[in-house]
Design goal:
Blueprint (H helix, E strand, L loop, with lengths): L6 H21 L15 H21 L17 H22 L18 H23 L7 H14 L12 E7 L4 E7 L2 E5 L10 E5 L1 H8 L9 E4 L2 H8 L5
Parallel strand pairs: 1-4
Antiparallel strand pairs: 1-2, 2-3, 4-5
Helix pairs in contact: 1-3, 1-4, 2-3, 2-4, 5-6
């Protein structure tokens, strides 16, 4: 595990990215301002989504090993901008407190337990880092002042998405394929798709050419896998249809 993925570093990143999120929200034209990257959402919707998510995962981590998650908090969320931001800051602290109390190895329910990412507090912390990172981009876009993501964090974000969202034992319903993601910062990932499911695979010198590849900066790749950018924003080689099939795929396990 690299130092950047150590549990204390992940907790610090949640705190730092959440502060950036709050700053972006405060800089937006107002709570009803649209969020271009989340069609139909306002800035208030974005804050509510992220804050309720922080609270839900705090409850999940606190509950420990479980067959199902606890119910989401149905309490009313403040509408006034300052109160909403204060509620969001409290949501972050609830999550961070639950994670600190649990420690990295504590098992808990996760929706990704059949994949590569671990179903424990460390896996939750890593996932929430990138949830906040991408929604900070959304908020900055709404405020009209997008700032570059830290490259090392964006690089881990691509890997985390493949580990968490694109790893499953559900059989791939199309022809077997491999997808190559290449960041211009010098890191690459391979995703194998076949009858055994979808799995991040090691890149070796003797690996056959991928069915398709996507090249861009780490930030561009991260925003692509999160649905904020499209294939047209990247350099694509090979059969782009495989990427489209992956985006449209809703595996049933």
């Amino acid at each position: 595990m690299t130092e950047s993925l150590a549990f204390p570093a992940l907790l610090q990143l949640i705190d730092e990215r959440s502060a950036a999120f709050r700053s972006a929200v405060a800089a937006a034209p107002g709570p009803d301002a649209p969020v271009p990257s989340c069609p139909g959402w306002t800035v208030s919707d974005l804050v509510r989504h992220l804050g309720t998510g922080q609270r839900w995962w705090a409850a999940i981590v606190a509950a420990g090993p479980a067959e199902a998650p606890p119910a989401r908090d149905a309490a009313e969320v403040p509408r006034e901008p300052e109160a909403l931001l204060a509620w969001y800051a409290e949501s972050d602290e609830l999550l961070l407190s639950a994670l600190r109390e649990a420690g990295p190895e504590r098992a808990c329910w996760t929706w990704w337990s059949a994949g590569v990412s671990p179903a424990n507090a460390w896996g939750v912390a890593r996932r929430r880092v990138h949830e906040v990172l991408v929604h900070t981009y959304d908020a900055q876009l709404a405020a009209g002042a997008v700032r570059p993501m830290p490259a090392d964090l964006a690089l881990d974000g691509v890997a985390e998405f493949l580990d968490t969202c694109n790893s499953t034992p559900a059989p791939w319903p199309h022809e077997p394929a491999t997808l190559h993601y290449h960041a211009t910062e010098g890191r690459s990932w391979l995703l194998a798709l076949d009858g055994t499911g979808a799995w991040p695979a090691p890149l070796t010198d003797d690996a056959p050419p991928a069915t398709a590849s996507a090249t861009g900066t780490a930030e561009q790749l991260l925003l692509f896998v999160w649905g904020r950018l499209t294939l047209s924003d990247l350099k694509i080689e090979g059969d782009p249809q495989v990427f489209e099939e992956l985006i449209a795929w809703e595996p049933e396990e």
